[in-house]
Design goal:
Strand content: 15-25%
Oligomer: single chain
Order of helices and strands: HHHEEHEHHEHEEHHEHEHEHEEH
CATH class of one domain: Alpha Beta
Helix content: 40-55%
Structural class: alpha/beta
Number of helices: 13
Shape: elongated
CATH superfamily of one domain: Periplasmic binding protein-like II
Distance between the termini: 64 Å
Largest sheet: 7 strands, mixed
Amino acid sequence: MKLDYAHLAALAAILRTGSFDGAAQELGITQSAISQRLKALEERVGMPLVLRGTPCEGTETGRRLAAHLDQVGMLEGALSRDLAKLSPRTARLRTAVTADSLATWFLKAAAQVPDLLFDLVVDDQDFSADWLRRGEVVAAVTAHEAPIAGCDSTPLGPMRYVPSASPAYMAKNFPNGVTAEAISTAPILIFDAKDRLQETWMTQNLGVTPSPPSHRLPSSTGFVEACLLGLGWGMNPEPLVRPHLESGALVPLIPDTTYETPLFWQSSRLLAPALAPLTKAVRRVARQSLAPHSPANLPTN
């Protein structure tokens, strides 16, 4: 099927901005032209591509077609670097990344590849690979090691988590220590419905999987701030809380019970040459940032 890339650009802009008006402003054309291009594309593929709403969202086919345009942009960007006579085109990279990676190290890697525009999808490390399986992104930071079909998998290192809380919270909720009984009533922090880190840690270290009262807080830095304020305890990324552990503002629930999640960079094999600069930056920064300290050196309470 031959596709009109002006039509694909209109679709991608609608999904990126969430509206026909936003797409028109981004592409510098009228809203009517955006509507006409989308209509022509939908007629061409024979199915709806956009779910009208606030914001507009793509159907599964619509998201796949938008991702295809990004892949073409990546290939053209790589080619333009090799052939100086071509007009360079800034490529847009849609990738899935974990919230904790975004908050601790990924942006440092992204900043080392200034000729890319990033469209980041944030998801749990156990689910970010699903975006690759659906063809909606070209790369992902994930806990999934086995290569997704058509992708290469590169180990990055473990993200270390420290179950931690403020001293005041510990004194109030665990006056006799962290026990299975006490933890069942102590307020806990949950990132979102997919977050199983706290549950996994309790099972491994206390032999129980209770359902304590919980705050749902979908922010890595917000997690840390909530712990500092005594709202609850949570599994915090070690790079974010090390200064607070060293100062005593936060303490581990139980010493030497950190939890590590191995991370991998999965990226499209077809786009490997175009992705090479980012892959190199991701590997380098992850190696410098992930689990840089021995658990034995973490402060204890």
